[in-house]
Amino acid sequence: MLSQTHPTHRSQNYQKQIWAVGGGKGGVGKSLISSSLGFTLAKFGLPTLIIDLDLGGANLHTVLGQPPPQKCLSDFLSGKVAHLSDCIIDTQYPNLRIIAGAKDDLKITEIDDHFKQRLMGEIRLLQPQFIILDLGAGTSHYTLDFFNLANAGIITALPEPTSIENAYRFLKAVYYSRILHHPNLQAIKPLIDAAMTPNNQLGIHSPSDLLNEVNFQNPGLAMELKKSIKDFKPKLIMNQTRSQTDVDVGFSMKSVAKKYFGIDLDYLGYLEYEPNVWQSVRRMRPILAEYPHSRIATHMDRMCNYLLKQARIEQTLHASE
Ligand SMILES: Nc1ncnc2c1ncn2[C@@H]1O[C@H](COP(=O)(O)OP(=O)(O)O)[C@@H](O)[C@H]1O
Ligand SMILES: [Mg+2]
Questions:
Q1: pLDDT of 232-281, one tens digit each?
Q2: N or C, where is the chain less crowded by C-beta within 10 Å?
Q3: Which numbered ligand comes closest to the C-alpha of 282?
Q4: What is the pTM of this model?
């Protein structure tokens, strides 16, 4: 793999970044996108680690063409190794390392809160500058908390009604989970619990409804809530698009998220349905290694450049605060 170290990509330009890739359903391309983001950052010359956090269907190592790993997340979960960093393995690609997922499928319920906190703490301590979290399907607390841990949370959806529905469900669940953990918003927990209950008596069906209700009950907290909605900027990638109409689904989702949820969904872009993907999977080669000049590669370069630019802007803002 060519290592293109563009001046803006010098690793000293970045503080540690965690990007998470989630989204309602299985099979929507979370692992393909996580591995491609990681591959692209590594290609840019940035030290990158991808962690497979899909407890029920870990397959990141296969997507990246790695042989069955000697070490994996299970070793940390079982206490065989003391630190998550002990599970890191090199790949054949410069700057790219991974932590392979749990060997045996685990039930999310087997990860208790204490353990989840430990895992999150360990992720924060890891050295590589760029960490990509490949999340599992669904809206368990485990998945939501890791999504919220990230500097950039990326939702992946297919242009199909079931996937779109799941993506909205995920977006809503992530949002409520963010507020539940917000230190200044504990007082509105009962309202959030109501909001998370379908057909609740208060008639709260969306974050905007929640905001109206909080405004009614406690205008001071409504300001705080408004700020948290404003700060929440999840990203969206439409995957396996086959037409302009499919691409436009992303723009519709952006409008719906704004109108009904009050959330600024940042539409990063789309990846076309690429018939060659299955061949690279069969050959156990990452698609970007097999087809470095494919449309997927071009889209990934552009998305990574955009995310890196955002990371630099945020760093500058923090520095001036
Ligand atoms: N843009 C695409 N074009 C063609 N096939 C794709 C594309 N994205 C994903 N796939 C295929 O869809 C399947 C599911 O993708 P995967 O990344 O494993 O999903 P997830 O991690 O969300 O379960 C894989 O076989 C993958 O190769
Ligand atoms: Mg996956």
A1: 899 999 999 999 999 999 999 999 999 888 889 999 999 999 988 888 88
A2: C
A3: 1
A4: 0.92
* Pocket of ligand 1, beta carbon within 6 A: 26-32, 239-240, 271, 273-274, 277, 281
Reference 56, options 113, 89, 103, 116; nearest CA is 103
Q: Whose CA is nearest to atom 11 of ligand 1?
A: 29
Residue nearest to ligand 1 atom 23, measured at CA:
27
Domain residues of the chain, as ranges?
Answer: 7-161+236-320
Q: What tens digit of pLDDT does each residue of 178-218 get?
A: 888 888 888 888 888 888 787 888 888 888 888 888 999 88
14-44 pLDDT, tens digit per residue, is 889 999 999 878 889 999 999 999 999 999 9
Fold topology of 7-161+236-320 = Rossmann fold (3.40.50)
